[in-house]
Amino acid sequence: MDGGSEIRLKKGIAAYVLVLAVFLMSAPMALANESAAGEDAEALRQFEFAEHLFNEEDFFRAIGEYKRFLFLYSEADNLREEACFKIALCYFRAKHWAEAVESLATFIERFPGSLKRPEAEYLKGKAEHELGLLEDALTSFQMVIDGDAGELRNKALFERALVYVDLREWEEAGRMLAGISTNSTFHHPAAILSEGLGMIDDLPRKSPAAAGTMAALLPGAGHVYTGHYRDGLVAFLLNGLFIWAAVELFDNGDHVAGGIVTFFELGWYTGNIYSAVGSAHAVNRHREESLIQSLKSRSGVSLMRNDSGSRYLTLSVTF
Predict the structure, then answer these.
(1) Whole-number Å distance between alpha carbons of 306 and 302
(2) Percent of the chain scored above 90 by pLDDT?
(3) What is the spatial distance between Cα 146 and Cα 179, in angstroms, rounded to a whole number?
């Protein structure tokens, strides 16, 4: 073999070794990329299945699939935020308010910079309102109001006003309603509610003091004053019978029995006074609630109940 052939052979061997080395180095990387691509595809399929269940309103199966996704695919950062939010949304739409509040609080803590945070705060406020956690609801809605300048802020102002209505803080409710933008879909309902809340102080009322005084002077009269005629008749007859029995026993010299009957009569007599006062408060509260429900109906707000008896609010306006 001449010198030129030997050189060409050595170059060929070197090229072969170089190609083999490159192949051996790139093969694991290619396999890793293929494996990662396969895992991404599996993660996406898992997430899409959870989304399908959510869209079908099969909320509790969807929660299970979202949680499975979060457990199995910890590297799918782009979808983890959405999965956490959807878990909370499932609880909210299923009207499991306590779980919704807990899940929304968890989402807010894990993703404080999320674009969905204002919506999460708003939903948390609504769930807290349903649970009767009125102060917590006020705080959640205020977080939305402080951090959002769009329609969500108007929704939060409206909902915060409704919480103040439940607290019977009419002035604060009116102040919230006055802050709703004139171009908002909530402006017209807010105007109706605001106008009506200004009428609450002008409602005809029954005086609790007058009811109690009348009941003290004549048992049953306080109830008649508040329009509860049957209760008034019962109070009058019971107290009348006990007083008559006590007088008869004392007249007959049976002081022990007379004292016992008098003791029980004092209980009926005192109860008649407290009941009359409570009756006046109940009448006033009923008139307030009737006005508020009328205002809500006129403004497109309706208070409904689900199968479990929980209250929830619906608005016949588009968001």
Answers:
(1) 13
(2) 35
(3) 12
- Report helix angle 187-197 to 255-299, nearest 10: 150
Q: Across the strands, what pairs with 311? A: 305
For 134-156, give one letter per residue: b (16+ CB within 10 A) or e: eebbbebbbbbbeebeeebbbbb
Condensed to tens digits (0 to 9), the pLDDT of residues 230-276 reads 988 888 888 888 888 888 788 888 878 878 878 888 888 888 888 98
CA 210 to CA 218: how far, in whole Å?
Answer: 12
Residue carrying structure tokens 């329009």: 227
312: which strand partners? 304
Q: 157: which 2 tokens?
A: 């102002």
pLDDT of residue 199 exceeding 80: no
Type and span of the H or E element at 302 = strand 301-305
DSSP string for residues in 14-51 = HHHHHHHHHHHHHHHHHHHHHHHHHHHHHHHHHHHHHH
**Do residues 234 and 313 touch, judged by C-beta distance below 8 A?**
no
Note the pLDDT tens digit of each residue in 18-67.
545 544 555 444 434 444 455 578 888 888 999 999 999 999 999 999 99
Contacts of 31 (CB under 8 A, 6+ apart): none
Q: Roughly how many angstroms between the first and final C-alpha of the chain, as a whole number?
A: 88
